[in-house]
Automatic annotation (TrEMBL):
It comes from Thermococcus celer Vu 13 = JCM 8558. This is ABC transporter. InterPro entries: AAA+_ATPase, ABC_transporter-like_ATP-bd, ABC_transporter-like_CS, Metal_Ion_Import_ABC, P-loop_NTPase. It holds the Pfam family ABC_tran. The lineage of its organism: Archaea, Methanobacteriati, Methanobacteriota, Thermococci, Thermococcales. SUPFAM superfamilies: P-loop containing nucleoside triphosphate hydrolases (SSF52540). GO terms for molecular function: ATP binding; ATP hydrolysis activity.
Length: 264
């Protein structure tokens, strides 16, 4: 059974399509890199798979179920700058919140078994010693790793990540990409990752989707990342450069922040 299956999926906001007629299947354990220009519908597709947005037609299944019946199998990692960092939570508390939400309500006192799980998840992302530090005082890369730990605490089978590398400097990108690789190799979790920069993630991408409201291409990276396909949505200056058996995708695309803020 595929981890995610979409058939002729059209997603709308007040009747206006943001994603149109998309069909694809992602097998369990695979990582999908979701690529496309600003406004292409990447976040919309991710939120619909997560059951945060429900206005769609066509078929969408997560492990054979409608997304809203599969919520306990799904972990969602939002864009890190969408978190309200005025709240003075420690890294450990932010991670533990992943387990509290899963129970359907928020306690003020975190149960000891959840603290233990949260500490394990922090250890997995290499931040065990940072549990007592305030989330808002961490670097961008450390915050992103805390958010990954928060999603891991509830043992998801499918992890949806919205721009996990955006707004990070190059060394933090490598750091976060390394944690994503560890999640894939050690935990075998299926992942869908939206990104404007596919290059640091190509090592873990089993499938690439190019979205520009409609599905432009879906397949193995070497099948999808071709000059002609990239140029068709990013313009004539975009290109794919092979370097030592690796592909580098030059799109000239910069992420323009358009999403509103919100509470953690
Ligand atoms: N809450 C909303 N209400 C109405 N329209 C929306 C809403 N959210 C997104 N849209 C529209 O849906 C389309 C797709 O937006 P979406 O945020 O999914 O694109 P994206 O590919 O994630 O873009 P970016 O790379 O800039 O984050 C856009 O035209 C956007 O204006």
């Amino acid at each position: 059974m595929p981890a995610v299956k979409a058939e002729n999926l059209t997603i709308t906001y007040n009747g206006k399509p943001a994603v149109e007629g998309v069909t694809f299947e992602l097998e369990e354990g695979e990582t999908l890199l979701l690529l496309g220009p600003n406004g292409a519908g990447k976040t919309t597709l991710l939120k619909t798979i997560a059951c945060f947005h429900r206005e769609y037609s066509g078929e969408l299944k997560v492990f054979g179920r409608p997304p809203c019946n599969a919520r306990e199998l799904i972990g969602y990692v939002p864009q890190s700058h969408s978190l309200n960092d005025r709240v003075p939570l420690t890294a450990l508390e932010v991670v533990a919140m992943g387990g509290l939400y899963r129970r359907g309500f928020v306690h003020f006192k975190i149960p000891p078994e959840l603290i233990e799980k949260a500490a394990k998840a922090l250890d997995f992302v290499g931040l065990l010693d940072f549990g007592d530090r305030l989330f808002r005082e961490l670097s961008g890369g450390q915050r992103q790793r805390v958010l990954l730990a928060r999603a891991l605490v509830s043992n998801p089978r499918l992890l949806l990540l919205d721009e996990p590398l955006s707004a990070l400097d190059p060394s933090a990108r490598v750091e976060v990409a390394g944690v994503l690789e560890r999640i894939k190799r050690r935990k075998g979790i299926t992942m869908v990752i939206t990104t404007h920069d596919v290059n640091p993630l190509l090592e873990i991408g089993d499938r690439v989707m190019l979205l520009s409201k409609r599905l432009i291409a879906f397949g193995k990276p070497e099948e999808v990342l071709k000059d002609s396909t990239i140029k068709s949505i990013y313009g004539p200056l975009a290109r794919v450069v092979p370097v030592e058996n690796k592909l580098f995708c030059i799109t000239g695309d910069a992420h323009l922040h358009r999403h509103g803020g919100g509470a953690p």
